[in-house]
Amino acid sequence: MKTLSRLAAVLAVAIVAILPARADQYVNANMLPENAKAFIQKNYASEGYRTCERDDDGHYDVELRNGVDLEFDADGKLLKIDGGTRRVSKSVLKQILPAKAYAELEARDVLGKVDEVEFNRYNIKVDLRVMRNDEIVFDIDGNLQYITD
User: Which neighbouring-strand residues pair with 25?
Assistant: First the structure.
């Protein structure tokens, strides 16, 4: 009996150690920050929500029914947009990118080929699908930093 109790205790400790402290939590779309809801309403009003999750960092991951994935910070600031099987629309790009970055993409004739845009503290990464996957990186002011294949 003691052996069985010890085995159960060891198993319980192992399970707790393996599982993350907290998993992403599904939330109701009404619980999104106001800025996030406003962005979705303005740009994707006709699309319904597939899932809304809040992670340990307070970020919100939203998947729309059309396959677009969005990530917002706790204040509702857009951190990432992934067009899924579609491209990110020019109107959305014009709204979210600095004017210099938008103009650079327009000059390179790749506005219709943007799959994903990711914002972080230091730069903006724009993923393209041209002949192969390319990435154009801008600083936070929209100045071109580099292009990768």
Answer: 54
Asked whether the beta carbons of 118 and 124 are under 8 A apart, the reply is yes
Q: Residues 6 or more apart from 35 whose CB is under 8 A from it?
A: 72, 75, 76, 77
75 DSSP 8-state letter: T
For tokens 């060891």, what's the residue? 10
CB 95 within 8 A of CB 88: no
Place of tokens 């799959």: 115
Please state the pTM of the whole predicted model: 0.81
Sorted by sequence, the CB contacts under 8 Å of residue 61 that are 6+ apart come out as 24, 51, 52, 53, 54, 55, 69, 70, 71
Q: Could you give the domains of the chain? A: 23-148 (3.40.1420.30)
Q: Which tens digits make up the pLDDT trace of 62-82?
A: 999 999 999 999 999 999 999
